[in-house]
Amino acid sequence: MSPALSAEKLVKLFPGVRALDGASLRVEPGSVHALLGENGAGKSTLIKILTGVHRPDGGRLEIGGDANEVHLDSPQAAARAGIGVVHQERNLVPEFSVAENIMLQRLPTKGGLLDRAAVRAEARRYLELLELDLDPDRRVRGLPVSQLQLIEVAKALSMDSKVLLLDEPTTASTPSEVDRLFGIIRKLRDGGTAILFVSHKLEEVYDLCDTVTVLRDGVSVLESVPLAELARPQLIEAMVGRAHTVTELPERPPSDANPTLELAGVSTSDGHRDVSLSLHRGEILGLYGLVGSGRTELAKALLGLSPITSGSVRVGGKQVKIHNVREALKKYRIGYVPEDRKEEGLFLEQPVSRNIAVAMWDKLSRRVGGVSAKAERQLADEYVERLGIRLASTGQLAGELSGGNQQKVSLAKWLAAKTEILIIDEPTVGIDVRTKAAFHELIWGLAADGLAVLLITSDLVEMVTLADRIIVMRDFHVCGELVNDHVYDSTSREVMELIHADAPE
Amino acid sequence: MTLLVGSPHGTTPTPPKPPKRRTFGRIAADQRVGLLALIAVLVIVFASLRSAFLDEQFVIFPLLRDISTLTVVGLAQLAVLSIGHLNIAVGRMAAFGAMFMGISYEMWHLPLYAGLVIGIAAGAGIGALTGVIITSSGVNSFVVTLAMDFALLGLISLVYSSFTTAAAFTVKPAGMNELRQYTLADVCVGDLCGSGAIPQLAIFTVLALAVVGYLFSRARAGREMLFVGSNPVAAELSGIPVHRRIIGAHALSGGLAALAGFMLAVTSGSFTAGIGSEFMLPSFLGPVLGGTLLTGGAVAVIGTLLGTSLTQVIRQGLTMLGASVESLSISLGAILLVALSFDRIRHVITLRKAVPR
Amino acid sequence: MTSLSTLAPRAVFRSTESTLAILAAAGFAALAIASDGSLLSGSSLETLFTYLAVPVLIGLAQMVALAVGQMNLSVGALGGFVAVAAGSVMAHQGVPAWLAVLGALVLGAAVGAINGLVVVLTQINGFIVTLATMTILTGLQYEVVGTATLSDYSPGLRELGRTSVFHIPVIFLVAIAVAVALAVYLRRAIWGRRLLASGGNPLAARLSGISNNRAIILAHCLSGLLIGVAAVVTLASAPGVNQSIGGDWLLASFAAPIIGGVALSGGAVSVTGTVLAALIVRLVDVARAQFSLDPSWVNFVVGAVVLGTVVITHRRGASA
Fold first, then answer.
1. ipTM over 0.90
2. What is the 3-state secondary structure (H, E, C) of A248-276?
């Protein structure tokens, strides 16, 4: 039987990064196929190609058998070609009925007007198939998220999809909702639908899926392997790999004995439960976890951006309550280098000099004359040199720099502000290998200078290279802490085992 | 202590020198020069067609007076454009401030400048209130200022009909008439007197330009406002007090609107409820023609003066050539559309240049 | 993941509409009593409804633009321009009324479509684009009619403007008929649904193959068409048309949809709510006349209600 979907050696290049370098995938009808990969492995790029958002630079895509090569130019083209997607985020029209949302792409007409009866009848078919007991005329707004998700499944099915792509469908679902969804998926599979299940949760993959493809560094390291023949440790190893060697970095002076930042039993309104950690000056504390584990949210809660509901935060031994980023910086000298540098870290249309100096404007401001442009330039020049930022002049707009240099500017801002505690969130995402290494040396050097660094990263190699201790997070709580011996094999395995250990009830 | 930089893994290839890019500063400078040239050309053309165009007393003086008032109106809108907001109620806030000035003069018998200060404070106050509503409710500025426009319309007409006859405060404080007519020719240092064409009202405009210019080029608050306009999320994460800046921008807008209301009242001779009803279009034309981006993050202060001047010169010239006041609307509306299209094109070009290598 | 129930935390439409209906009924009853029943007299009712026709139409015109998250600042200027243009061709060129009316509708729709086209092509905020076209149209209005007032056109049309059926003016019936037609279009016509889908969730619409650009152009076109109808109604019922027509339409066009519960961010419309809100604003005006209050009170009350409605019903919605 020919596969419902076949991707062969897909290549996708972005400036400075090979996101996909020969990724292959094959989904058979009547099966549930898992797509796994760590952050940065190329999973989301592959999904974007399958859904028509990106066009591949190489390779071949076939839907419904050989000689059915397709070129997906747009999301509509992908849908027409037979790929039905249920994205991570909901995409429904709130004021429309369930039925209309399901049939939105091809509303049936009668005599030029909307054929309400047909819409209802068609929608009912899919609702019944999915065992959704909903009034098709009910407005979508106000329905629980799990039902919204199933409505989108119905919508994907209604387009006569040959392949149903589910992207991280259980990120925010309760266990009973997950069970329900899986029941439906199994039913669809038995009915002959080809399903591509993208997830990072191994338990679910083993529970539901028949075969698996694992991406790593843009390549399929495991292709369409039956899960029955694959033991968990082997799967983890495939995902995590051992192709990388950890950079050897020079000795560093020991970190301070007294912690500079301490969290004790912290819970937040985002869902964190009982998080405890301690960070010392001169130390790099790693915070590892998969997407959705709550690390960035923890950092933002620390900065006062979302409420901490219980537990205590101590800076320099004293209990504090931080209300906003400004207070975190000015009073407690805490800085945060965000994950998304373009959206959250930089002002792309402003000059580099101002980007670097922005957190220092109050110090650079004189009584008369405001912020001295000269002092600002001097400050910027100092850090441009220290971090080796390549640019023509600091008057250049931040948006014109390469990804690596932009990230350096984002970092420079906090160094210029003389922070003492720095939270760095995913510093080298989308940055080429050489610049990555430079960044690692940079961060190492900062800690050597006495900075307290909380490093959030999903790049295990980076974590093992840099961190002195590693805290592993999962589902918004800490599931373990270990000392890093900078040996990749052992440490990475320990970390992955903590992550994928069966969740306690 | 120098941190380790560069890579020990072989030589890092030097990236090619970035193309000669034009910062906003350069584009703005070009625009200013272009506007100035255009104004000069138009003045020459109009003057050659109608020699009366250069009449100091009857043409240039009123022209400069209008430019003075409308430039302040443009600055009022520029104040919120800096953070990427819009102020629909700029005309009504002018009327609100003017209303307080009228009350100060007629009911409280205050001198000219005391009333001015009160009026500006009232304008700034209502602007600040608008800013507070925006930051606390999370509703976008367009909607809030539209609703505020409504509410003020009612409030103002109510006050005027309750406290005045014929909907105008007519008591003129001492000095108002003089301010209306005096020019720099009345300012003399020894034997050297200023030009008779330049109205004394222009002094307010110069002050406003100086203050706003200083704010956005040097003062920390102004820079922070521009950064809020550029990227509100990054601004928050960089320690900028975003809410305070938003409220400040709207307060500034209200205060400047009130000042413009004052200048209009002085020019027309009375404080009425209709002050500012014609401010909406010029409030956008000046800044947009001058190069201020509608999306926030970059303002052109002198550009606003030039943009307003260009508009008024065109208006005056066409009027003298026989065009009716209303038909000028057609030209001005068309100019706004064209200017907006260029603004859009320029924005796209700036973004294209910002694509990282 | 955000649940859709947090995307639009507004009062459910049903309850807004019923609240407005109750308010309108109660207000009407109260006024009838306060006027010792004179409000219920034939001529009073006629006056009430006569001056309700245009507010309903311009409220609906703004509502359609709001449905796709746009604004139409040119409602007044366009209405005035179409009115004087149609009046002028009837009075000066002797064009028969039916043709002029047809022309008015086409003109309104065409200008509306141009508004939409400019918005889509320049990708600029619809507010500014319609600000510019408003300015142009105001000038054009003057070009057509100057300082004159046109009043000697089509006696037939003027007669229609004075006719009532069971004390309900024909022009009001026209307005209601248009409202019903619009409601049906938005609920049953394919492009009506697509328009609302685009306004409600542009991304979902795009992923479902709906062109957001076309939806915007359509919305502006419909807005212009409704303004065309308002212009015709004005021609029929006003003593004459001149430069001032449409001058006070702009703010009024926002009051009805906002109070009627229409979301300013798009996607949710209520024809019933808009009509009821227009009625309530009209009742406020009647009350003012009844109690000999200052006309400014109407503006103030409406203004405060609009401000209050915006703040209460749009909390934590769109970001600034």
1. no
2. CCCCCCCCCCCEEEEEEEEEECCCCCCEE
